[in-house]
Specification:
2 copies of one chain form a homodimer. Chain A has helices at 48-63, 68-75, 79-91, 119-138, 180-188, 191-203, 215-228, 235-242, 274-296, and strands spanning 95-97, 104-106, 143-148, 151-157, 173-175, 231-232, 246-254, 259-268. By secondary structure, chain A is an alpha+beta fold. Chain A is elongated. The two termini of chain A are 32 Å apart. Chains A and B meet through helix 1, helix 3 and helix 4 of A and helix 1, helix 3 and helix 4 of B. The structure holds a DNA duplex.
Chain lengths: 306, 306
DNA sequence: TTTTTCATTTCAACAGTTGAAACCAGATTT
DNA sequence: AAATCTGGTTTCAACTGTTGAAATGAAAAA
C-alpha cells in the first residue's frame, strides 16, 4: 500500500464507539441497549451519473490505456454514455486522449483526487468493528497501527472504555523499537523496507532508536520475534510509559504481498502474566490479524449500471 | 511530484504530430495546410453531475476533513446537492463519514482513481505543443525526460521529423550519467534526492554508472554543470549511440519546490559547434524550461457550477 | 430562553442524462 | 472490387434523475 502523505494531526474518529459520558444519545447513529451501532441512513439515492463517471475513471486507472470498446466491456455501459463520461473526464482534466487513436489515459490531475488521503483515518474506520468485537472477546484493549516515516501511528484503538491508564487516541505516534506494534511490523516487513526503516531510525535521535544503531542486537531480536510469532513491548518503554504495570504483545497484519499494519493486545502484569497471556491470546490475535489483512486489501467494486 | 508507478512499456503518443506518410488526413484532428493541429471537437456537453461529484471529491482531498458547510463555501453548490454528492461518494467507497460528527474524509479507495497514472504519458501530452514550437524556433530536436528509478525516461520528443539518426520514441529510457538530460536533472535536484539517486546508480551494474562509484569526479562534474547552467551529453555516450556526430545540452525543468524533469537540444557537430550552440540556444532553452515548469505544476481548476 | 448556525429532508419543476439507432471510417473477408 | 465486420461518433426524443428552495431538526452560542 503506497504511502503518499504523512499522518496529519487533526483529530478524527470515524465510526468510533460513542463515549457514554459525553452527551445524550444521538438520533442517528445511536446505540441501542445492546451497545450496537446503528448504520446511518442516507437521505438520497446515489447519483447514478456520478457513480458511472467514477467507475469509468477507475477502469481507466486499472487498464492504463483504455478505448471505448474496452470500457464498454468492463462496465457494460452504452457506448454513447462512455464517450460522454470520457469527454467529461477530459474536460475536467482527469483524462487525456491520444490525438491519433481513440485511446485514453489518466493525467496527473487525478492525484488531486487521492493525494490528501490519510491512510490512518481510513484504516481506523475499516478496522473499528473488528477491533470492538475483539475487545469483547478477550477483555483487553488493542491498537492497530501502521508505519509512517519513523514511527507507528495508531489508526484505531479499543482502549476508550476501561482504565484511564490505557488512554490513547488515534493519531498517536509510537516508537517503532519500543512497542510491540513497531517490532512486529519491522520483523515481518520486506527486507528492503526493513533496511530502509532501520537506516532511518539509526539516523534519528532518541533513545528508542538506540538499537537501530546496534545491528547485531536488533537483528537477533527480530529473528526471535519471527521464531516466536509475536513481538513484545520493550521493558524500558513499559517502565517509562506505564511504570512497568503494562505489557503488550503484537503481530503483523499482512497479506500475500506485504505487511500492511500491526495489532497488539495490552494487558496488566498484575492480572495476567506474559506466559498466560501468550497461551490464551496469541491464536485469537493472529486470527484477528488475518481477518483485518483481508479487510484492508483494496479491491474494485462491482460496475455501476442503471 | 510524487512518483507512484514506474513507466510502462506500451507505446502511447498523446497529441503527437501526425506522421504525414502514414495515411490520408483524418476528418477530425486534421492538420490544415500550415501544419497546425486542429483541436478535437467534443460530441457532448460535459455531464454536469459528474463534474460536480469530482469537484466535491477534489475539495475533500484538499481540505482533508470536510463538512457540508466547508464544501458549500468551496464549491458554491447547494447544500442538498453537496449531501447528495457526499452520500454518492460514500456509497461508492471513496469517502467515509465520522459517525459522531458530520465530517467527511477520503478513503484508500481513492487510490484506485490515480494509482495507474503514468507520469510520462501526461507530461508528454502537456509539453508537446511547446516542444513543437521550440523545434521550429531553433531548428533542432529536443527531448523532455523525467527521472524514474534509475534512468531518465523520455516523455516527449520533437525528433520525429528530420534525420533518422535522432529516432527515439517516448518511453525510451536514457542513462542518467550519460545524457545531458540526466546530468541536468541530477545537478539540480534536492540534495537528499541526489544522494539517493547516486546511491542507487552506484549499486546498478553498467558502465554508465561508473561515475556514481567515483564520488569526487561526479561531484566535480555536477558543480561545473551548476556553474555553467547547462549539462552536456557524455562524449562516450555520443560515440556509442551516434558515432560521435551528435552533441546535446540539457537544463532542468524546475519550479520553486523541486526539479520536475529536464529538457535538451540535440545537434550535429558538423553543423554547429558546442560553443556556437550554447551561445545561440542556451537562453531560449532556459526560457522554454521555465515555461514548461509552469505548465507542469498542477493547480486546481475553477469550481463546477451550474 | 431565544437566536444562530449547520445539517437534514421534502417535493415538484424541468432539463439533463440516456441509449437505440443511424452514421462514419478503416480493416478484414469474400 | 464489393461486402462485411469492428469500433468510434452523432442524433434525438423519452423520461426520470437531478436539482434547489423551503421547511425542518438539532446543537451551539448569546
Amino acid at each position: 500500500m503506497p504511502r503518499i502523505v504523512p499522518a496529519r494531526t487533526k483529530s478524527f474518529s470515524p465510526k468510533r464507539a460513542m463515549p457514554l459520558v459525553r452527551r445524550d444519545p444521538l438520533q442517528r447513529g445511536q446505540r441501542n441497549a445492546t451497545n450496537e451501532v446503528k448504520v446511518s441512513v442516507p437521505s438520497f439515492k446515489p447519483v447514478v451519473a456520478v457513480a458511472r463517471g467514477l467507475e469509468v475513471l477507475r477502469v481507466i486507472n486499472e487498464e492504463r490505456i483504455s478505448t471505448v470498446r474496452s470500457l464498454n466491456k468492463a462496465t457494460g455501459l452504452d457506448k454513447a454514455t462512455i464517450v460522454r463520461m470520457l469527454e467529461t473526464l477530459e474536460h475536467e482534466g482527469y483524462v487525456m486522449r491520444d490525438a491519433e487513436r481513440a485511446v485514453y489515459a489518466l493525467t496527473g490531475r487525478t492525484l488531486l483526487l487521492s493525494q490528501g488521503y490519510d491512510q490512518h483515518l481510513w484504516i481506523g474506520s475499516v478496522v473499528e468493528p473488528t477491533l470492538r468485537k475483539f475487545r469483547k472477546e478477550i477483555g483487553w484493549p488493542s491498537d492497530v497501527a501502521l508505519f509512517d516515516q519513523d514511527a507507528m501511528i495508531v489508526a484505531q484503538t479499543s482502549r476508550e472504555s476501561g482504565l484511564l491508564l490505557f488512554n490513547r487516541t488515534p493519531g498517536f505516534r509510537a516508537p517503532v523499537l519500543g512497542t510491540s506494534l513497531g517490532r512486529a511490523y519491522l520483523a515481518y516487513c520486506a527486507e528492503q523496507e526493513q533496511a530502509q526503516i532501520i537506516e532511518t531510525l539509526a539516523k534519528t535521535p532518541g533513545h528508542w532508536n538506540d538499537m537501530a544503531r546496534n545491528p547485531k542486537r536488533l537483528s537477533k531480536m527480530l529473528q526471535e520475534i519471527r521464531e516466536r510469532g509475536y513481538a513484545l513491548m520493550d521493558a524500558d518503554y513499559s517502565r517509562e510509559e506505564y511504570e512497568g504495570t503494562v505489557w503488550a504483545m503484537g503481530v503483523p497484519i499482512k497479506n500475500d504481498k506485504q505487511v500492511l499494519a500491526s495489532i497488539n493486545i495490552m494487558m496488566l502484569r498484575s492480572a495476567i502474566s506474559q506466559e498466560d497471556g501468550v497461551k490464551r491470546f496469541l491464536l485469537p490475535l493472529q486470527r484477528t490479524a488475518a481477518m483485518l489483512a483481508k479487510q484492508l486489501t483494496i479491491k474494485p467494486r462491482a460496475a455501476a449500471r442503471g
